[in-house]
Amino acid sequence: MQNKNQRHFSTVRSGVLVAAVSIFMSSAALAQQAAAPPPPSVTTVNIATSSVPLSYQYAARISAFRQTEVRARVNGILLKRNFVEGAQVKAGDVLFLMDPASYEAALMQAQAGLKQAQAQLSQGIREEKRNISLFDQKVGSQKSRDDAISARELAEAAVASAEAQVKTAELNLGYTKVTAPISGVTSLEQVSEGSLISSDSSLLTNITQLDPVYVNFSFSDAEAREIRHLIDLMKSKGQEQKLRVKLTFGDGSTYGSEGLVDFTSATVDVNTGTIQARAVIDNPDRQLIPGQFVRATVSGVTADSAIVIPEVALLQGPQGQFVYTVGKDGKAKINAVTLGQKVGSNWIVNSGLEAGDQLITEGVIKVRPGSAVNATAQAAAADAGKGTKETAAN
Question: Cellular location of this protein (predicted)?
């Protein structure tokens, strides 16, 4: 009887323990279910392609459009300077006067020699006519006729030589007035008045043309390929392909006029690995000075069908840069991306995203790969703006 009661008590106790364990497990499950966080809320943008204007920024340096040396073309004494040093002069202005006396005398001598040669030619022509007439009348000899013809031909050659000497003398006399070969700004006078000038070595002054001026900078070879590719695409569509240049000074202010790129080197500089380029820009107020450093922003190309994402969506991982997108199942997905140029506060994506992808732009810190998210679509993507890529020129 006692054993039977013990077995009954043991059975009851086991049932109580099973019930208690079941109640505990149910409570734990309910507690765990109550503690599980809801999917994180994120904001997404529907990826779409667009045409994005690009620009590139370089350190640049101003150089003169033209710079020439003014030298004497004849020897002589420098009598007078006709310009103010550092002033603007025009092409053809008389800058210096040299003593013309010896060259005036040389011209008079050459003119006298010309008259003498012309007189001899007139005499030769008369002798030729006379001897030809006598020969036709069977009175003169053939030798006399031939001698007369030769004398006339020699006289003509003497006249031509005398005319050349007169021309040379006129040129030398004209060279005593030293004129400006180009329009521009003069430098300091190099030789004082009263000095003996030699045409071989005497530098009188320099003239620098400052309107327009050149802007010199350098592309990297990768950027040059990219720009050429974009220009070729624009050409195929019949669009304008001119590269424009805007200048910025060291204090952040911008120059009022834009220039155009007029030259790009066909070879890569072996010392710097860059490609030299040059733009021409108007400088009527002489704000741009040769040797001055500026920052040049080159624009005029457009990237078609570009994907642009906001910088806030971009993350950095051990394998590189990536973004999160939301798949059709509502779960977050990692997309490794390759970036192109920065466009304002956004980036152009070269690979890793496609049009139609749902990009997570806000709440990315709370996202875990493969986890569900509560996505809210953003009304519109951020404005791409205007891109600027900075490159240091040599």
Answer: Cell envelope
Give the mean model confidence (pLDDT) for residues 328-357. Answer: 87
Q: Residue 393 pLDDT more than 50?
A: no
Query: Are the CB atoms for 264 and 275 separated by under 8 Å?
Result: yes
Whether 44 contacts 378, CB under 8 Å: yes
Which domains can be identified in the chain, with CATH numbers? 41-52+305-391 (2.40.420.20), 55-63+209-301 (2.40.30.170), 68-99+176-208 (2.40.50.100), 101-174 (1.10.287)
Amino acid letter, residue 179: T
Rounded to two decimals, the pTM is 0.68
**pLDDT tops 70 at residue 17:** no
103 vs 8: CA distance, rounded Å? 149
Q: Which pLDDT does position 2 carry in this prediction?
A: 47
- Please compute, for residue 1, the number of CA atoms within 13 A of its CA located in the half-sphere on the CB side: 0
Note whether 159 and 114 are within 8 A (CB).
yes
The alpha helices in the chain, defined as continuous H runs, are: 2-35, 101-136, 142-174, 221-236
Contacts of 251 (CB under 8 A, 6+ apart): none
Average pLDDT of the segment spanning 139-145: 87
